[in-house]
Amino acid sequence: MRDSVPHNQGDVVKALILAGGFATRLRPLSCTRPKTLFPIVNKPLLQWIFERLSKDGIDEAILAVNALTKFYIKQTKIPKQGLKIKFSVDPPKKPLGTGGPIKKAEKLLGRSEPFIVLNGDIYAEIDYKKLLETHKKTKALATIALCKVEDPCSFGVVELEENKIRRFVEKPARGQAPSDLINAGAYVLDPEVFDYIPKGKHISIERDVFPKIVEQGRLSGLIIEGLWKDIGKPQEYLEANKAVLDTIKNTKKDEKTCFKVNSPSALDKDVSIGEKSVIGPYAIVGRNVKIGKCVSISNSIILSDTEICDYATIKGAIIGEGAHIGESAKINNGCVVGDKVKIKDKVQLNEKTKVCPAKEINF
Ligand code: GTP
């Protein structure tokens, strides 16, 4: 059900989703899909984002992408949830960073109303209505959603007083963070921000724009309460899946099976499991995965169309789409196996091994 957000009558509320980065830290899985299409509990992250925007009454989502990301997104056919979807494409071979795409989309966003900008690589239960309200109330130029974390040093960290941000420090050195409140990667921006971003340049909104707005005392912040997960690195991607799984707990229960599914786990459609296999806890298994007998899978994500043969063990790993894991193979903690990889029988992958797409591993 869609709610309405605070805006002038007749104006549409727009959100720009930044989704044209290269996701280098998520290789090899990002060699074959953009970050925003990584499944979170068997549903593309972008679908979760569309659902939340739509629920909060946003009318239009503009995807800031590169040509390849656009191709993948169009191919995936994500339900639009009543949103109008548009694309703003970075120039060929010229990534624009996290700020340049905002300027690039100026015409599509328009200059009449504040708009939302969000990173397409975060799972966040943000109340966008509240963020827009805070922005209007504080008359800020930009309002950032803020999230409390234990270790803030790999993010943009703020010093907050009431709703006003006094300092914004991008990735501070250890011990130098002004608080535990970080930029959650979602903002409301006033159209005046377009004047702070040069055209056609690679600009970082965090390093090049926010510090200038802070200096003028026009940067606001709103602390968000819900679940917030960045999926930038493989371990974070796995943790995000586990955290979301904890909120939905949709383990298929079938008492009469000859295999065991430990909760919480999520099995998508058409998953087959052989006898005496133990799946979970925290096994997230995509569509059409075939699991043999006496297989053990825990704390892992298995993407769709993969085959896992008898007696294989997968622990704390991520296995790409259409992969083949041979009989008695062992895939250990932190391993990331690309799409269409073939792991032969009895192969053991050491911890944190990464295998590029379509490789064959024989020993
Ligand atoms: P790494 O290479 O692993 O650092 O990832 P990234 O550069 O893809 O992501 P980063 O966390 O730096 O960016 C935050 C968000 O901005 C992500 O949703 C990216 O897809 C997006 N983004 C980053 N660079 C660009 C860009 O040049 N153009 C566009 N359109 N989006 C970008």
Can you describe what's shown?
The radius of gyration is 22 Å and the shape is elongated. The protein contains 7 helices and 31 strands. With 363 residues, it is α/β, with parallel strands linked by helices. β2 (39-40) and β3 (43-44) form a beta hairpin. It has a 7-stranded mixed β-sheet with strand order 5-4-1-6-11-8-12. A 6-stranded parallel β-sheet has the order 14-17-20-23-26-29, with no helix packed on it. The protein has 2 domains: 14-234, Spore Coat Polysaccharide Biosynthesis Protein SpsA, Chain A (Alpha-Beta Complex); 250-361, UDP N-Acetylglucosamine Acyltransferase, domain 1 (3 Solenoid), CATH 2.160.10.10. The chain binds guanosine-5'-triphosphate. The site of guanosine-5'-triphosphate has 21 residues, from β4.
Properties at a glance:
363 residues; alpha/beta; Spore Coat Polysaccharide Biosynthesis Protein SpsA, Chain A; UDP N-Acetylglucosamine Acyltransferase, domain 1; 2 domains; seven-stranded mixed beta sheet; six-stranded parallel beta sheet; 7 helices; 31 strands; 29% strand; elongated; binds guanosine-5'-triphosphate
